[in-house]
Design a protein that fits this description.
Radius of gyration: 30 Å
Distance between the termini: 73 Å
Helix content: 25-40%
Number of strands: 20
Number of helices: 17
Strand content: 15-25%
């Protein structure tokens, strides 16, 4: 049986509260070590004989007064006396090695910058959520990789984690006294760090957080549920917001629409329940009332639920009906915005949705709004120069085109069309308003289709798109802004 790879260093945390940490150097390396140690409550002493601008600026921001002293091994040996840690960051490798040797003689752990063989300890990339700290080391793989990992971890952790941990510390004695060891106590702490308490802390509502924690302590089996209405964005995983990712990692259940790609659903907590409630044209797996009842039922079971919607939950996502149902059931919820498909489509075309002197307003609508007996009120905005973003417009494209032309829009108005905006399998098309009816015949377009119409569309980049219609219209270049 193969043994797992073993570390050559043992990760540990050293107590430095009010203790002296000595840093020797003049430039960027010394400044970096000072910034790192400043995450702690250590007493930092920086010894320098010719401080450079970066060091002076960093120490000034940290409110640390440098100590001017000649940098040589003998003098360093005197200055480091009583220190808990020593950093040799002079930029002179030989001098740094000498400083480390003097520190070792005094039995003080020392670190020579960029010389691993002369380091008694390695400095990690640090994620600081005091009193929570995450130290990341890569054992020879280099600081760049450690910093990349640190950035990822930093994004995953809520900025309020430290406040939540301090609150947990306040309740620790009471929990140990009132709740028996084992399942009940573990369940309390899990819900403490994931349920109402965590949500209130994240929103800065500390008094409500304490009330929720006390209520849980008195009735550990009666935990209230919570719902996030989350915008999954247009489909690309890396367009999901950090807040959405954090909610998905905390959720006990994920309720998602058909237009949300599986790759995004998979970003949720591995053991979370998953409920597909998607609606596609001609195939509704769940009615809206069924979805409302599901959210209420799961929340009443004490679960934390992510209701995952394509794009932004407040734009054609029926969030209003779900919010009303949750309010009626007295269930707390939160809106997590997402990038709507119109913005993703514009980005795919490098298309300015507003353009000074050309278009100063936007209209978001669905193609079905233009199939009624009368034009909607916003139609006059499109005629006056607004950019028109039509969601789900493929199957009614002919009606949309004819109604807008009848209303006064030019037949040669430029149109941009995107299927699966933002995703790797997206397809881009262009044409004019007169070409738009050809969209209905493109049955191969099975993904969500966004149609953007307006004078500003002429400023898009059409180099990666194809004409939507065959024949004479397909050969005609889109109208330029000047035209």
């Amino acid at each position: 049986m193969a043994h797992p790879a073993q570390l050559t260093t043992f990760p540990a945390f050293m107590r430095v509260d009010a203790k002296k940490v000595a840093i020797f150097g003049n430039g960027a390396e010394a400044a970096a070590k000072a910034r790192l140690v400043a995450n702690t409550s250590a007493r930092i002493e920086v010894y320098t004989d010719a401080p450079e601008a970066e060091l002076i600026e960093s120490l000034d921001r940290l409110d640390i007064k440098p100590i001017l002293s000649e940098l040589d091994a003998d003098r360093a040996s005197e200055l480091m006396d009583g220190a808990t840690l020593v950093f040799a960051a002079t930029g002179d490798d030989a001098l740094d090695r000498q400083i480390v040797a003097r520190a070792r003689a005094l039995r003080i752990p020392a670190n020579a910058v960029d010389q691993p063989e002369f380091c008694d300890f390695l400095t990690p990339a640090l994620v600081n959520r005091a009193p929570v700290a995450i130290a990341i080391g890569t054992e020879g793989a280099g600081p760049v990789l450690a910093q990349m990992i640190r950035a990822r971890v930093d994004q995953m952790l809520s900025p309020s984690l430290g406040r939540l941990a301090r609150l947990g510390s306040d309740y620790r004695i009471a929990v140990d006294k009132l709740l028996p060891r084992g399942v009940i106590r573990r369940r309390f702490w899990r819900r403490f760090f994931e349920a109402d308490v965590a949500t209130h802390v994240e929103q800065g509502e500390m008094s409500l957080a304490r009330r929720a924690a006390t209520r849980m302590l008195r009735n550990p089996e009666q935990v209230r549920g919570y719902v996030w209405l989350v915008g999954a964005g247009p489909g690309a995983e890396d367009l999901l917001t950090l807040r959405a990712q954090r909610a998905m990692m905390e959720a006990d259940a994920i309720v998602y629409d058909a237009l949300v790609p599986e790759a995004i659903v998979a970003l949720g907590r591995r053991d979370a329940e998953r409920f597909a409630v998607g609606k596609r044209k001609g195939c509704h797996s769940k009615s809206q009332s069924d979805i409302n009842e599901l959210l209420v039922r799961l929340a009443n079971e004490g679960k934390r639920i992510v209701r995952l919607k394509s794009g932004d939950p407040l734009i054609f996502g029926r969030a209003g009906e779900e919010m009303a149902a949750l309010r009626d059931a007295e269930i707390s919820f939160e809106i997590v915005p997402g990038i709507t498909s119109a913005f993703a489509a514009a980005a795919d075309f490098e298309l300015p949705l507003t353009l000074r002197g050309v278009a100063s307003s936007l209209v978001f609508t669905t193609g079905h709004d233009l199939t009624g007996a009368s034009l909607p009120d916003w139609a006059r905005l499109a005629i006056s120069g607004a950019t028109l973003c039509v969601y789900m417009g493929r199957t009614v494209a002919a009606s949309v085109a004819s109604r807008l032309i009848e209303a006064g829009l030019a037949a040669d108005m430029t149109v941009a069309i995107v299927e699966n905006a933002s995703r790797g399998d997206r397809r881009l098309f262009h044409g004019t308003l007169a070409d738009l009816p050809a969209l209905e015949a493109r049955s191969e377009l099975t993904g969500p289709v966004m149609v953007v119409i307006g004078d500003a569309v002429a400023g898009a980049d059409f180099s990666n798109s194809t004409p939507i219609a065959a024949g004479r219209h397909s050969e005609r270049a889109p109208r330029t802004q000047a035209a």
